[in-house]
Amino acid sequence: MTDTPTTASGRAVPAAQRLWALGDYAHIAALLSDLGRDLVAAAGIRPGQRVLDVGAGTGNATLFAARAGAEVTAIDVTPQLMEVGKRVARAEHLRVRWIEGDVQALPFDDGEFDVVMSCIGAMFAPDHLTTARELLRVCRPGGRLAMANWISGGAGGHFFRVLARHTPPPPPGGRTPVEWGDPAHVARLLGAGCAELSTATRPVVARFDRSPQELIALYKAHFAPVIAAYAGTAGDAERTAALDADLLAFARAADSGPADGPHRYVFEYLQVTGVRAARCP
Asked: 208: closest CA among 256, 262, 154?
């Protein structure tokens, strides 16, 4: 007997899929849609290129790549997220292939894609080394890699540190997602497989100009890690109040707008671009 949910075929539903299916991530992705636009531009995506978006979620970067005329494949462990992107793609008559799958075991041939990108996606896979190897493997020699990853010192890193204080610790030896925002860590993971590798810290301004209280209300209603954190404090008024206070303090610290509005929230991330080497170790 097990409490692990299963699919109709009897396959166990991965924990990551169960997590990210909570809430309605489309509301959160819309706040930071410029991330996808900027990553597609940084990757230099052109019509006819074979593009893979890893950890595609609701299709933030996927849709921009498809609009640029690329032949796009989107892969994510949570099909519920991709349903959002599918609806947009159908409405805009964009051709995108959507596949449920794990970045740590990509179901593609070696060198299948001209561009492999990930916009705040692959960074959440627990095995960083395997993730990096898979990103490199499916990119053709001379092809391009592009990533957008939250950095530890920015608002995104601050946000996940707040949640970490109120959620169970990762498994022993597990890596944290924001390590992908460290240029040295990225170089260790991808450097040997790239003929060129560049990183730059960039800002993205959230498309949200209301109060910190309203921002946190949006996260509590729609962002899976926050929903899960509150589920973990259910029935404990003191822990719930502490989580409330910490999240509100985060939002107030992230707000760089004038006191009387409009409010302004800037999130810094590491933009990674590289050219796949002729041979990978």
From this structure: 262
Is the full-model pTM beyond 0.70?
Answer: yes
The single-letter DSSP state of residue 103 is G
CA distance 170 to 177: 11
C-alpha–C-alpha distance, residues 193 and 200, integer Å: 19
Q: With residue 133 as reference, give the H or E element that holds it.
A: helix 128-137
Whichever domain contains 87, its CATH number is 3.40.50.150
Number of structural domains the chain divides into:
1
In a domain, 39, yes or no: yes
239-267 tens-digit pLDDT: 999 999 999 999 999 999 998 889 999 99
Structure tokens at 267: 């999130």
Residues 6+ apart with CB under 8 A from 83: none
Host domain of residue 41: 15-206+265-276
